TrEMBL record, chain A:
The chain crosses the membrane at residues 12-31, 38-59. This is Signal peptidase complex subunit 1. The gene is LOC120110657. It is found in: Endoplasmic reticulum membrane. InterPro entries: Spc1/SPCS1 (IPR009542). Its main location: endoplasmic reticulum. It comes from Phoenix dactylifera (Date palm). GO terms for cellular component: signal peptidase complex. Pfam families: SPC12. Keywords: Endoplasmic reticulum, Membrane, Transmembrane, Transmembrane helix.
UniProtKB/TrEMBL annotation, chain B:
The gene is LOC103718993. One of its GO terms (cellular component) is signal peptidase complex. It is a single-pass type II membrane protein. It comes from Phoenix dactylifera. This is Signal peptidase complex subunit 3. Belongs to the SPCS3 family. GO terms for biological process: protein targeting to ER; signal peptide processing.
């Protein structure tokens, strides 16, 4: 990932986890099912992991410009 | 955010923190539940009142128990453990408590019932103090949550007198 991508990934991770936690609690409380709350939250965590943890190409849209090896040697 | 493992670690830690907050919130909401329990239990018959070889009094009873515990259940309740305790006073102890019968209520559907049972556990005294004794029955319940603090409470239901002589 590049620097921008890292920032996006971290932001996405935090937002997604919090949203899933809130939704899980609201749904679980509304239908009075503790199990449903846990299920929604667990699948949310898995989905967030899938989106933000691996090094996807859309996190690398601003790649770093490394110097050419020949330039660095000078 | 620098590597796969780093991001994975961050995610797992943050997810665990949020899970702890979810459980705390669920447990906290339980405090707003004000339950009303209806219960009654009485002794139908004293089956046996004898003195054991060890010198201790032993009583065997038939009980009629009925209760409605539905208001104790919330979405965060795993089960409710109830037991019927016989309480009496002796010269040695100001309070003797003996569990006569207990039961686990797994959900709201099983929370209202009536039963005629013999006591599961015999009423055995430490000594022989039970002649003509006044015994009070109290129903205790422990509400066990899925997450959080266990709530326990009790309610006096009835009292009876043991006979003055062995049967």
């Amino acid at each position: 990932m590049d620097w921008q991508g890292q920032k996006h990934s971290e932001f996405l991770m935090q937002i997604l986890l919090v949203v899933f936690a809130v939704v899980a609690f609201a749904v679980g409380y509304a239908i009075e099912s503790f199990q449903m709350m846990i299920l929604i939250y667990a699948s949310g965590v898995l989905l967030t992991a899938l989106i933000t943890v691996p090094n996807w190409p859309f996190f690398n849209r601003h790649p770093l410009k490394w110097l050419d090896p020949s330039e660095a040697d000078r | 955010m620098h590597s796969f493992v780093y991001r994975l670690n961050t995610l797992v830690t943050f997810a665990a923190v949020l899970l702890a907050m979810l459980c705390a919130a669920a447990s906290l909401l339980d405090a707003f539940n004000s339950p009303t329990v209806h219960a009654h239990a009485e002794v139908i018959k004293i089956n046996r009142f004898r003195k054991q070889l060890s010198g201790n009094d032993e009583v065997s009873l038939a009980l009629n128990i009925s209760m409605d515990l539905r208001s104790l259940f919330t979405w965060n309740t795993k089960q409710v453990f109830i037991f019927l305790a016989a309480e009496y006073e002796t010269s040695k102890n100001s309070l003797n408590q003996i569990s006569l019968w207990d039961h686990i209520v797994p959900d709201k559907d099983h929370a209202k019932f009536q039963a005629q049972v013999a006591n599961k556990y015999p009423l055995i005294d430490q000594g022989s103090n039970l002649h003509g004794k006044k015994v009070e029955l109290a129903l205790h319940w422990h509400v066990m949550p899925r997450t959080g603090r266990m709530i326990q409470d009790k309610m006096a239901v009835s009292s009876f007198y043991l006979p003055g002589t062995y049967t």
